Amino acid sequence: MAERSPETNVIDYRAAEQLLAARDPRGAVKLLDPVITAHPENTAARLLRARAFFLGAQLRAAELEFQVVIEREPDNAFAHFALARTLTRANRPTEAQRHYRLAAALDPNPEFLAAAHFEDRGDRGEGGA
Questions:
Q1: Among 84, 100, 113, 125, which lies 20 to 30 A Cα-Cα from 107?
Q2: Within a domain: residue 67?
Q3: Given a cut of 90, is residue 75 above it in pLDDT?
Q4: 9 found inside a domain
Q5: Which Pfam families match (predicted)?
Q6: DSSP state letter for 58
Q7: How far is Cα 71 from Cα 25, in angstroms, rounded to an integer?
């Protein structure tokens, strides 16, 4: 396989964004895989691929990819929120709640705050954040 140019990676990334917007997560993943292979450190590409996995209901792959993003950018509120949504869809609400609350603590976005349910701190009998 010929080496990819930086331009090709940018074009594929932008095309993957468009495919995701058009609700074609599998097409987006196909374009992003070689971008990430060429640049595994590219957090933006990994975050986009995680979103594509989520939209394609590939929850375990989405979870792993969101975790990579969070390891590299622990203050990425969106990644925490998206991981929480993934965990919620995977029927893991206790794990999800932790990430909803981290997202809201990092960014007081109204959607993040609503999902965090800070007002319900004692509702499950679990203490601490």
A1: 125
A2: no
A3: yes
A4: yes
A5: TPR_19, TPR_2
A6: -
A7: 24
Q: What is the pLDDT of residue 122?
A: 52
Model pLDDT, residue 127: 42
Tokens 């009998």, residue? 125
39/58 Cα distance (integer angstroms):
22
Residue among 6, 7, 62 nearest 29 (CA)? 62
Q: Which residues contact 29 (CB under 8 A, 6 or more apart)?
A: 16, 49, 52, 53, 56
Q: Is residue 65 part of a domain?
A: no
Residue pair 23/45 in contact (Cβ under 8 Å)? The answer is no
3 CB neighbour count, 10 Å cutoff: 6
pTM of the predicted structure, to 2 decimals = 0.86
Q: Which domain holds residue 92?
A: 74-129
Are residues 97 and 120 in contact, defined by beta-carbon separation less than 8 angstroms? Answer: no
42 and 1 in a single domain? The answer is yes
Two tokens, residue 86: 């993934």
Domain count, the chain: 2
